[in-house]
Amino acid sequence: MRQLVAHAMDQGAFGVSSALEYVPDAFASTDELVELAKVARKYGGVYFTHQRSESDRIFQSLDEVFDIAQRAGISATIWHLKAAYQENWGKMPEVLLRIEAARSRGLDVAASVYPYTRASNGLVACFPSWVSEGGTDKMLERLKDPAARARVRKEMDEPSTAWENEWRGSGGAQGVTVIQVLNPELRKYEGMNLEEIGRQMGKDPKDAAMDIAIADRGNSQVVIAIMQESDVRAAVSNPLLTYGSDSPAQAEDGPLSTTKAHPRAFGRFPRILAEYVRTEHTMRLEEAIRKMTSQAASRVGITDRGILRSGMMADIVVFDSAAIRDVATYNEPLHYSEGVRDVFVNGRPVVLDGRITDERPGKALRGPGYRHAQ
Fold first, then answer.
1. Which domain holds residue 100?
2. Is residue 372 part of a domain?
3. Statement: the pTM of the whole predicted model exceeds 0.85
4. In the predicted model, what is the mean pLDDT of the chain?
5. How confident is the model at residue 372 (pLDDT cuts 50, 70, 90)?
6. Is the same domain home to 231 and 350?
7. Are 107 and 236 within one domain?
8. Do 233 and 327 belong to one domain?
9. Is the separation of the CB atoms in 39 and 73 below 8 Å?
10. C-alpha distances in angstroms, 128 versus 64, 214, 223?
11. Closest Cα partner for 27 from 105, 134, 119?
12. pLDDT of 37-81, one tens digit each?
């Protein structure tokens, strides 16, 4: 595994990342992660992580991130920081204080966030981790087995310290909405929550979820309702946090518009500017822009972008600060935001006067290991 990380760094990776809430990374030990992060650090790389717990064990999970950063001597960033599930709402201020305390001890740790109270991931994350162990075929075998299904149904309703129970944390079937499927026969369920789907199928919503996972070979994506607004506001407005979408590229038309989405795929930056800067005044416009640009670039070690300065790459967005706003919703997510006039990538216009152009000036960005290897 160390050799694979080294090879990836030579090819231009910016570092190593882990998704510790999900299979297979859920089975990785802290020691293993430290060793891989050490390799990335040799190349000047960074460590990014979906921490092991965003809910009941969030403070222990933070300690693990800090431990990895210290032992590997590496910059660490937590993806889409959150305090998940109702019993953990209100913990975000303490989470932020712990990150600040770690920084005061000399650790280069921070986090990113998206400005929504609902998250999104694979439907199979609603099942206990043991269901997915061994790969897709093993998972499908278990989901088809009556005894295993009975165990899954039972564990989906119970609190657990062995896995992050997103089904229970979302409040059950009503809090889990299917947004993307690969199997065209399942398209009729996109935009419906599992309570509605179960009713339409005439079965327990948990069985409906398992049957969709079987029919879609585990590829279905869902939106889950797991956060509260005050925690999101605290994270979005904190000077240490940058922003991300945690979403694949999608569009209003063409092949990237054939499924539903989380609205964050279209609206995260305009939403921050409209909601938290213009309406709630939780931060100044300049601060929000810094967090979106130069601060975000610095977390990954990108030094030629993020600032308007001679000699830097000309990645520029021109927008109306009084009009910019997100219009993508959970029910109707495939809508571009309003108020963006021009977008330049590497100095060439990809959006001009509000319209997408035919310019395609984007380039693959390479990490420090690639630059040193050339």
1. 2-117+227-356
2. no
3. yes
4. 96
5. low
6. yes
7. yes
8. yes
9. no
10. 22, 15, 18
11. 134
12. 999 999 999 999 999 999 999 999 999 999 999 999 999 999 999
